[in-house]
Design goal:
The structure is a homodimer of 148-residue chains.
Chain A lengths: L3 H12 L5 H8 L3 H13 L3 E8 L8 E9 L5 H10 L3 E7 L4 E8 L2 H13 L3 E15 L6
Antiparallel strand pairs in A: 2-4, 2-5, 3-4
Helix pairs in contact in A: 2-3
Chain A binds a DNA duplex (30 and 30 nucleotides) through helix 3.
Chain lengths: 148, 148
DNA sequence: AGCACACTCTTATTTATTTAGGTTAATGTA
DNA sequence: TACATTAACCTAAATAAATAAGAGTGTGCT
């Protein structure tokens, strides 16, 4: 379904999501209309889920990042939990993980006080019995790039 | 340094990184050249770190995502470890975390065999004493959007 | 063979972006 | 106060990019 040209398009867009169609067309050696048609299909078929600007969180004061491991007492509260998570902007990611029936959250906050407030808030959500926080000291690698 | 118009630009680009300049100009009520000038500065000052297409990993067979917690025996090997991490495409993220002198990795692989191979590889890196893997069952939230 | 489909192309048109040059308002300084 | 400087912004013209329209080519199927 995806040929080498599609892969080349995707590789480029993983590196620069604002690459111009004219440049992509040059890159893969097709005319602009043909490239445009392919790109449209990649978008429509959900192969490309979206395009996002990545901002420097530190500029906005979000200097603290942490992984928060959440233990829940039962799966009955999962839906409410998910709603709470989605409404909380400090939580960037949330995954249900295997083992201990728990979840892992990635969150960013501006200061330790906000972190404390966030932890207290999570603790108050139905079914949450315990949280363990892993404070991030430094980032060695941070990408969303899939190996194509 | 950043006014309301800049924030509006950034909000929009966090949602759609390919938003046209003409649309951004309309949105904030400035002329196209003025918008362009602002955008250029946001990029040059590193406030916008880049633009990325987000791909659907499942299309490419990367159905498994896991957090791998790595224990290291000393900080002497951190640099070599970081190099290994950067060279390994399955590892999307790697953070040094507080407590236990360890690291947290986020990785995607195509199947359990690849996961096993990846874990064996990480175990072989200098200084690594132990790993604990958290297998992700489902994704509740996954964004990079900063609350502006 | 004859048809349908998928993919590509060129050309014309429309839309988007950049460049050039000028206006205004705020700030600092002789 | 008067004058330069700077940082915004604007309009209009020129350039570049994207889309639309129409046609050609090759493959597989009946």
């Amino acid at each position: 379904m995806l040929d080498d040209l599609d892969i080349a398009i995707l590789k480029k867009l993983q590196e620069n999501g604002r690459t111009k169609r004219s440049e992509l067309a040059d890159l893969i050696g097709l005319s602009l209309p043909s490239l445009s048609e392919r790109l449209k299909k990649l978008e429509e078929n959900g192969i490309i889920e979206g395009y996002y600007a990545k901002l420097n969180r530190h500029v906005f004061g979000y200097d603290i990042m942490a992984f928060i491991i959440v233990m829940m007492d039962s799966s009955k509260n999962y839906e409410k939990f998910a709603e709470h998570v989605k409404k909380t902007p400090e939580i960037l990611e949330c995954y249900a993980v295997l083992g201990e029936g728990s979840h892992i959250l990635k969150a960013i906050v501006k200061d330790t006080k906000s972190l404390e407030q966030l932890l207290n808030k999570i603790q108050s959500w139905p079914g949450v019995t315990r949280t363990v926080t892993n404070f991030i000291l430094s980032t060695i690698k941070e990408t969303t790039k899939i190996n194509l």
